[in-house]
Design a protein that fits this description.
This protein is α/β, with parallel strands linked by helices. About 25% of the residues lie in helices and about 30% in strands. A hairpin with a 2-residue loop joins strand 15 (about 200-205) and strand 16. Keywords: Cytoplasm.
């Protein structure tokens, strides 16, 4: 499809024609800035036609960074990010090793929004989230950059989320020691130094943990609640997604 890109207020807008003979409609992508929620039109010099654009980025409440590593559990990464975005939380998926596509634990390929290096420049984030998956969690546990991000997040009193095997990365980086956590049952014995719970989602202060793919929706909803500070948001999110 035809595309045009221009710079605006230190950001970047890409206009892409979807389809139409009589009208032009363009998808709008926003990076590094948000425009007010409105329908607007503009004429870009040299394009010779008027482009209709709309912003759905307004009324966002809070921000979250999902760190995507090779071998991550794809359901946990995608569902969590999706629920956060449905909950009006500005969510960035940052690739641990760069902006290239990541092969997840079941060979599903996921494209991050940008590299983790670029993502942190948009911070600080209200929440930093680690998807699980054994391979992905091991990669998170070995990363000095992830350690730096988590330590700063914890010291600042902001939210940290980890699901499935990802609490082992918290353990490796010394995050949240002494708090109550949960995880996938297979890594329970690797979480010494924590109080362990079998609950599907556990929140202890600013630390939110969960058990696995089957609890990813609940995990995402709890993160939205934590970021937005809104106890009523769960019902508002769960209904349209048919979650009981």
């Amino acid at each position: 499809p035809q595309t045009r890109t221009c710079k605006f207020n230190s950001g970047e807008i890409t206009f892409r024609r979807l389809s139409s003979r009589r009208d032009l409609f363009y998808e709008t992508y926003f990076r590094k800035f948000m425009l007010p929620s409105r329908l607007f039109s503009l004429r870009i010099r040299g394009l010779g036609s008027r482009y209709l654009c709309s912003s759905n980025m307004a009324n966002l409440k809070g921000s979250a960074l999902v760190i995507l590593a090779e071998g991550a559990e794809e359901m946990e990464a995608v569902i969590t990010a999706d629920v956060l975005r449905r909950g009006k939380v500005k969510t960035v998926i940052g690739g641990l090793t760069g902006a290239d596509s990541v092969v997840c634990s079941r060979s599903v390929v996921v494209k991050p929004d940008m590299s983790l290096e670029d993502a942190v420049k948009q911070g600080p984030f209200d929440a930093v989230i680690l998807p699980g998956g054994l391979g992905g969690s091991n990669n998170l546990a070995k990363s000095s950059k992830v350690k730096e991000i988590l330590q700063e997040q914890e010291q600042s009193g902001r939210i940290i989320g980890a699901i499935c095997a990802a609490p082992t990365a918290l353990h490796a980086h010394g995050i949240g020691k002494g708090k109550t956590v949960t995880s996938h049952p297979s890594v329970k014995d690797k979480l010494d130094g924590y109080s362990y719970s079998e609950d599907r989602v556990v929140r202890d202060g600013n630390l939110v943990t969960s058990r696995g793919p089957g609890t990813a929706f609940e995990f995402g909803i709890e993160l939205v609640r934590a970021v937005r500070g809104d106890d009523g948001v769960a019902e508002k999110l769960a209904g349209p997604m048919l979650i009981k």
